[in-house]
Amino acid sequence: MRYLITGGAGFIGANFVHYLVEHTDAHVTVLDKFTYAASAASLADLPGNRLTVVRGDICDEGLVDSLTRSCHAVVHFAAESHNDNSLEDPSPFVRSNLVGTYTLLEAVRRHAVRFHHVSTDEVFGDLDLDDSTRFTEQTPYNPSSPYSSTKAGSDLLVRAWVRSFGVTATLSNCSNNYGPFQHVEKFIPRQITNLIDGVPPRLYGSGRNVRDWIHTGDHSRAVMAILEKGVSGETYLIGADGEQDNLSVVRELLRIFGRSEDWFEHVADRPGHDLRYAIDSSKLRRELGWEPGHHDFREGLEDTVRWYREHEEWWRPQKAAAEARYRSQEVAR
Ligand code: NAD
Ligand code: TDX
Q1: Confidence category of residue 106, pLDDT binned at 50, 70, 90
Q2: What DSSP letter does each residue of 66-129 carry, written as one string?
Q3: CB 155 near ligand 2, within 6 Å
Q4: Would you call 55 helix, strand, or coil by DSSP?
Q5: In this predicted model, what pLDDT tens digit does every residue of 47-88 receive, in sequence order?
Q6: What is the separation of C-alpha 185 from the centre of its chain, rounded to a whole number of angstroms?
Q7: CATH number for the segment(s) 2-180+214-241+277-297
Q8: How far is the centre of ligand 1, averaged over its atoms, from the C-alpha of 7 (Å)?
Q9: Number of alpha carbons in the 13 Å side-chain half-sphere of residue 301
Q10: Catalytic residue among 121, 126, 274, 280
Q11: Which of 97, 241, 245, 274 is most enclosed, with most CB atoms within 10 A?
């Protein structure tokens, strides 16, 4: 089996490449543009005979065509992924998330190659804090940010290519991931690396916003289950019943670092900040037999803190630039 993994040098893509190398005998080709969000170090310890890394753009039609022609399946993780950056400059989001997905779809259509599209629960918009419902595969799309609207658009392109052109494709919408190799711009690694540096965590607004956390290893296993058993044209929601408000996550990190529970700073809220995400993943569990392996968020957070403590050489080169970007975004707000 030969897989083409787009965005394989980013957070979730790299975790999935590790999963494939460890759990299958497939050959993996990574296509990644190596934007600021990528890290070659995330793939550095993998055996050269199992992995080919190609530095290139998913919008490059010729390159995408030649890589797609020689693989059995494309798993599409590549995207501009950070909401805050999409509020500062939406243009790379429109290009990579929409034009990039279109370019891949045309290639898999030409070569009749299986496609899996990795998406997010943010396409559904948000839920009220006191709402007991969760997102399902039937929830209407209602994205809030430039990021989530381009992901929603890319999902719709995939569905149209299945229906109009008979492309064989599945889709998944996952909740917030945490774990190793996540860029320090994202909430959990930002606060962990701040705490390592003796800097207080930064909480947007009230901190009451809720995210539904899943360990990235469980996301990898879910994508594998969909590749093996998913039905073309179907969407599967991926989530592990991990709802936490942001303040609770910060307090948990403060406990792990032995700091007092009020040692954090409120900063200006994200414009349009989604209140709550929550996934009902019963279809994935019922139809494909997937179950999360990580049940204890506290334990998962402790492991993640340990990983960042032990891999400072991985994140340190990104930290100053990420914080400089946040300072300029805070001024703009
Ligand atoms: P990331 O930002 O860490 O990695 C994205 C990768 O894509 C980077 O390596 C980057 O270089 C690459 N890339 C970006 N534009 C490209 C282009 N034009 N051509 C080739 N490569 C390009 O993102 P992530 O958090 O790993 O997210 C991966 C996917 O999972 C995204 O599609 C995202 O929407 C989705 N997702 C993320 C989460 C989450 O919690 N992080 C949750 C659900 C879904
Ligand atoms: O410093 C911070 N302080 C803070 O309170 C940062 C960076 C974030 N936050 C809040 C905003 C969110 O409520 O924490 C929450 C999580 O923020 P992010 O890590 O930026 O994630 P989110 O916006 O929820 O989106 C993530 O999950 C869905 C990924 O970045 C997306 O790619 C994915 O689609």
Answers
A1: very high
A2: HHHHT-SEEEE--S---HHHHHH--HHHIIIIIIHHHHHHHHHHHHT-EEEEEEEGGGG--B-T
A3: no
A4: strand
A5: 999 999 999 999 999 999 999 999 999 999 999 999 999 999
A6: 13
A7: 3.40.50.720
A8: 6
A9: 20
A10: 121
A11: 97
**215 strand-pairing partners:** 178
Q: Which atom of ligand 1 is nearest to the CA of 177?
A: 40
- What angle is formed at CA 181 by the lines to CA 330 and CA 276, rounded to 5 degrees? 55
Percent of the chain with pLDDT over 90: 98
Backbone dihedral region for residue 271 (phi beyond 0: left; psi -120 to 50: alpha; all else: beta): beta
The minimum-distance atom of ligand 2 relative to the CA of 177 is 27
**Antiparallel, parallel or unpaired: β 177-178 and 235-238:** unpaired
219 lines ligand 2 (CB under 6 A): no
State which ligand 2 atom lies nearest to the alpha carbon of 205.
5
Question: Is the entire prediction scored with pTM above 0.85?
Answer: yes
Query: H-type helices in the chain, by residue range?
Result: 11-23, 61-69, 83-88, 91-93, 100-111, 146-165, 187-196, 216-229, 246-256, 282-288, 297-310, 312-332
Task: Confirm whether 274 is a catalytic residue.
Answer: no
Which ligand lies nearest the alpha carbon of 271? 2
For ligand 1, say whether the CB of 32 is within 6 Å of any of its atoms: yes
Q: Which amino acid is located at 307 in the chain?
A: W
Closest residue by Cα to residue 217 from 319, 146, 300: 300
CA 156 distance to own-chain centroid: 18
Cβ(97) – ligand 1 distance below 6 Å: no
